[in-house]
């Protein structure tokens, strides 16, 4: 995948398992990536997988959750992280 390496600043980019670590990859792109990174994961994973991963995340910041809610047409209260506050 052709993603911005700087969003994986604490990870060895060359050893990322794109399937096993897809939740973390999607999370990083949503929180730190740009539009090109977003397009790249959409092409690689597809809408269904990204939708599933974001709905089950324990944490998404409010801006990311709002974007995903609009993009995927998902009510905010369906996100797992909607009613949980990080400690």
Key structural traits:
87 residues, globular, mainly alpha, 0% strand
Give a description of the structure.
With 87 residues, the chain is an all-alpha fold. The protein is 49% helix and 0% strand. It has helices at 22-32, 35-55, 62-72. Helix 1 (22-32) crosses helix 2 (35-55). The protein is globular, with a radius of gyration of 13 Å. The N and C termini lie far apart (33 Å). The model has no long low-confidence stretch (mean pLDDT 93).
Concise account of the structure shown:
The protein has 87 residues and is mostly helical. The protein contains three helices and no strands.
Topology readout:
Layout: H1 22-32, H2 35-55, H3 62-72
Number of strands: 0
Order of helices and strands: HHH
The fraction of residues in strands falls at under 5%
User: Given the structure, what is the number of helices?
Assistant: 3
Q: Termini, distance in Å?
A: 33 Å
Mean pLDDT over the full residue set: 93
- Please mark out the parts with pLDDT under 50 across 5 or more consecutive residues, or reply none: none
The best one-word shape is globular
* C-alpha-based Rg, rounded: 13 Å
Helical amount: 40-55%
Largest sheet: none
Structural class: mainly alpha
């Amino acid at each position: 995948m052709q993603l911005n390496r700087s969003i994986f600043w604490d990870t060895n980019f060359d050893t990322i398992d794109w399937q096993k670590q897809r939740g973390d990859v999607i999370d990083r792109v949503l929180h730190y990536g740009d539009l090109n990174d977003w397009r790249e994961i959409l092409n690689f994973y597809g809408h269904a997988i990204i939708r599933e991963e974001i709905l089950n995340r324990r944490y998404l910041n409010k801006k990311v959750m709002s974007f995903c809610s609009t993009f995927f047409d998902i009510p905010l209260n369906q996100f797992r992280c909607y009613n949980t506050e990080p400690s």
